């Protein structure tokens, strides 16, 4: 699937120069703050809105652009919305049957359609609730119905708009696994909008970070985490300490401190600004020796590790450390780089 397009609402560009090619069966998470254009991108691919410029195509078929605009129901895709979008008067089975009535499925016999519906109901654990209405289901069960309805027609593309945001924390984790299973089972290409960084890091093959309607960076979760290309990506994808210092080609030095950091994989933009992005687990707290002098100003235990907040000159840094050696509030310590 490829997409080179823009979308304007009145005088404002909601999408700018989006140029993106997605491979079959890829799982792409679209991540970004509120209002950055995630939903507009998804709705453009879905056919709910027409891009102002550019082309969206699936393989060789133009979905929009060059005078074409394929209707939503004629696109080879399934959608899952944040609000589940279930009809209150329809049972679970009726929801799952609904997409099988579209003209895209008319080549299938009645028997095959029935089998497909029952198979999906079974595989998502909905068989005991098949005759219930949405009002008689829990949040997680409703989300399963929305997923079942999206996949029953075996679409090539699944568009998911914050599908887990209405669920509580525990349910979110089990539904993440459900979505990963669906991805493996169906081989569908997934475009998954979220503003939850952990969701994007956990599930996607590639993450697309958007900012003000444009793509800020696209890459694997590991790349986005370890090699952010902008300050925005560094801080948006996960917590990040921006250490101020001086770059001397590939070597980073912090004033008055014998610390030197190798910066081969640090993006140029940080070098121009005299910054080194350090993840909380890349710092190590030590009691003596060379390092950045800092003071512990807060600590939080979470069962696995301790999250320390430290004051370091005028900066405030976050460090995740093991529980073996603990540091006290107010203690003066040193930070060294530990990767
Ligand atoms: N129908 C519309 N008319 C005018 N402006 C719109 C319309 N739909 C969206 N916008 C604007 O386009 C921009 C992008 O909106 P969009 O809904 O795509 O953002 P988002 O990243 O999905 O945000 P959120 O995470 O809050 O859902 C916003 O500034 C929004 O106000």
UniProtKB/TrEMBL annotation:
SUPFAM superfamilies: MOP-like, P-loop containing nucleoside triphosphate hydrolases
Signal peptide: none
UniProtKB keywords: ATP-binding, Nucleotide-binding, Transport
SMART domains from the UniProt entry: AAA
Keyword GTP-binding appears in the UniProt entry: no
GO cellular component, one term: ATP-binding cassette (ABC) transporter complex
Top-level lineage group: Bacteria
Keyword ATP-binding appears in the UniProt entry: yes
Gene Ontology molecular-function annotations: ABC-type transporter activity; ATP binding; ATP hydrolysis activity
Pfam families: ABC_tran (PF00005), TOBE_2 (PF08402)
Domain ABC transporter: 1-237
PANTHER family to which the protein is assigned, alphabetical: SPERMIDINE/PUTRESCINE IMPORT ATP-BINDING PROTEIN POTA, SPERMIDINE_PUTRESCINE IMPORT ATP-BINDING PROTEIN POTA
Name this protein carries in UniProt: Transporter
Species of provenance: Megasphaera cerevisiae DSM 20462
